[in-house]
What does this fold into?
Amino acid sequence: MNLEKILHLVQLKETAKKMEVSTIFKTLEQLKHRKQDLLDEIQNLLQKEVEQLRRASAPNAYSPQRVALDSKEIDRIGNEMERQSRTLQLRQMELTRITMNRKALEALKEKRRIEAAQKKNRRQQKELDENFRLLGNIK
It folds into this structure.
């Protein structure tokens, strides 16, 4: 497989990895917002419970159950966020490695292009020198 094809495959891998990292970032943001919504909801329910207690009315049985369920959901979301963060770190390391490989391949491609141009220039110079030498012999 030539260098161009290898470089193209590495670029495709890099693009795919960037998309994967972006997706994980979006998932983490969604989880963060969901967690904050649940925390806000718990705070709201607890404030209502405190208000009911101040008014000496019967506490709402629904609120403690809801707080308990929301707390479990917050824990689950926290665990998922940790898992996504670890995955994100791994994907970012993979992306860094792929990017370094791409840059190395691009540098190699450029080096080979320069070497080919220099070789062509030397060949042309040799031909010119030979032509001048032949012209010098003719005179």
Notes: Helices lie at 3-54, 62-138. The two ends are 51 Å apart (CA to CA). The chain has one domain: 3-112.
